[in-house]
């Protein structure tokens, strides 16, 4: 059940994420037919240690699948969708994803170093214990997304639309939020927010923990304030 939190006269609604709806049983991947390529549809498959290194796929659709120890390093994805899927200890380093959607997905213990996600949609997505330093999420639409215990120094959310987005125990040192749009609830809980840029784009966000003072200093810097002893 969602809980309601009050901030002065403003009501913020915190929505629980919808978990991936995985099939009761999955079949093992058969790489003679379960190839991630243009216009493919893959459903109910278990991938374990599968290499997708440097692949290129457009208009692919993946639903109800699990990926364990899979490497997407250097992959190029376009106009594709992953739904009701789970990714564990996967490598998304240097991935280039344009207009790619993740719907009801969970990602844990994975690496996004140097990846670029642009103009796509994350909806009901949980990203936990991942390294995203740096990672680009420019002009993404983030609806009901949680980043938890992630290393995100230098993460770039320029122009992103955020609604019901939560950052928990994340290091966002040097993060970029210029022209981001807070369309609803954005929360930072016990995060590191040193030297955040474009912090004005976070107007209305809720900050709990030590990051509140760090974010205030970033706002002051961008406003041109000078503090003297």
Structure description:
The protein is elongated. By secondary structure, it is mainly beta. The protein has a domain at 10-131: Pectate Lyase C-like (3 Solenoid). The strands form 3 sheets. Strands 3, 4, 5, 7, 8, 10, 12, 14, 16, 17, 18, 19 and 20 form a 13-stranded parallel β-sheet that branches. It has a 5-stranded parallel β-sheet with strand order 6-9-11-13-15, with no helix packed on it. The protein has a two-stranded antiparallel ribbon with strand order 1-2. The protein contains 1 helix and 20 strands.
- CATH class term of the domain at 10-131: Mainly Beta
Name the CATH architecture of the domain at 10-131: 3 Solenoid
- Return residue spans where pLDDT drops below 50 for at least 5 consecutive residues: 1-9
Average predicted local confidence, pLDDT: 88
**CATH H level of the domain at 10-131: which superfamily?**
E3 ubiquitin-protein ligase SopA
Instruction: Please give the share of residues in helix.
Output: under 10%
Largest sheet: 13 strands, parallel
Tally of alpha and pi helices: 1
Give the amount of beta strand, in percent: 35-45%
Derived from helix and strand composition plus strand pairing, the structural class reads mainly beta
Radius of gyration: 18 Å
Q: CATH topology of the domain at 10-131, what is it called? A: Pectate Lyase C-like
N- and C-termini, Cα separation: 48 Å
N-to-C SSE string, H for helix and E for strand: EEEEEEEEEEEEEEEEEEEEH
